[in-house]
Here is the input.
Amino acid sequence: MTLRRLVLTAFCALLLAVPAGAQDRVVNVFNWNDYIDPYMVQRFTRETGIRVRYDVFDSLETLEGRMSAGRTGYDIVVPTSEPTFSRLARAGAFRPPDRAAVPNLANLDPALMRQVESSDPGNRFGVPYLWGTIGLGLNAERIRAAAPDAPLDSLALLLDPNNARRIARCGIIMMDSATDVIPTVLRYLGKDPNSTSDVDLREVERVLMAVRPFIRNFSTGGAIEALATGQSCLAFGYSGDMIQAGLRAKEADRGVVVTYVAPKEGAQLWFDLMAIPADAPNPGNAEAFINFLLQPEVMAAITAHVRYPNGVPASRALVPAEVANDPAVFPTEAQRASFFTIGPVPQAAERARSRMWARFKAGR
Here is the structure.
């Protein structure tokens, strides 16, 4: 059994091991894969008697499609601030939490709250959960063997066809998300990541099509296991996922070493926000779960487990030193100077991006 399956099996066992009386109280959560400490979920049920039904997604497109269909049955969803959260908020998809029922909102970082306010005016609907960057997960030894002169700190490692062609034999994974990939390619080209220009989009397509023959598959969460087991040597994905791949590779002790690199051209910075759908069947239980998660010791445990920083400053002192001092998890101010964020794009531009992405994936 793979390590990933062992983790998932343990998670399911924890969710099933609920105390008596919890069967009639439930909170339905739709969150990113590999994005919580399962023991904190068990602790919540033990302390409150509320059972957690936990489903996962691995792309914003999946989440937004489910939300757009309506009547999801979820009490909490965790979209990224831009563009998904802001778009769903404008469409009336969320209800504001009762702040009196979530007193631990006071634990959130005021500076971070100001940052996400552009996506959630007045911080009305969203509660910051975790944040991170998008960059390169790599097995440097195997890449060096295939392409000794390839730059390990640059998006050119992936987007220059000369490099991608040589690395292809050891496996390249592209995250399956136009929302995340296109702004990064625009940044690589020296353009505005939020550009809606048809000319710029054609240039992005040219760059992506040039490396399309060398991409083994498209996956987001699946890149963790592929990197950890040595099935792939390069992936473009979320920072914490790439760091988790390195941890799993170390635990397996099979000689695979995976590291995460925020590219020198600049990494996309993102924030994931917990939100309560407008038609949530159990909003009170959702508020109880959110309030539980915002405790410093709980967020510290989650950050230690998934290797993503969180929005509760008091938690950092409780995070193990090797995590708190890891710049791949908590970027330095110098690193953050090159990071960028994205905003929403008009619907017509979004459709054009989706059509281009479909052509790219199909390779034609």
The chain has two domains: 3-126+275-294, 133-268+339-362. The first strand starts at residue 26 and ends at 32. The two ends are 37 Å apart (CA to CA). The CA atoms of residues 94 and 277 lie 4 Å apart.
